[in-house]
Fold this protein.
Amino acid sequence: MSALTIEELPTLTNPALIVAFAGWNDAGSAATHAAQFLVQRLQARRFASLDPEEFYNFSELRPQVRLRDGLYRDVIWPANDFHYSRSATSQRSLVMGIGIEPHFEMEKRTLRHPRPGASVLA
C-alpha cells in the first residue's frame, strides 16, 4: 500500500513544485506560511496527501485532540497535503506541498528520478 493518496490527477502545464516543511528548519514558520498563503491566494485545490503513519514518531509529534461542541473529540493527525493551481500563469502551473518534516523514511519523500526534461530549481 502506498503512503501517497491521490484524490484527483490534475492536468498541469510545465508545473513548478514548492515544498514547505514545518519544523526546526522553517525559519519562524516563514516557509509554511508562504506556501499556505499561495494556496489561499491562488485558490489551489488539494489533490493528494501522504499518510503520516510511516514518517513520524508519534511520541515526539503527538496528534492533537480538539473538543467539538464540548462533547465530541476530533483527532487531528499531522497533515502532508499537496495542492495545485493552474491560475498562477498560463505558462506554468504550481504544485504546493505543505507538511511537517519527517522523522523517518526521508528518502521516500524525495524526488530521486525527475521525469525527463523536468526543471529542478534549488
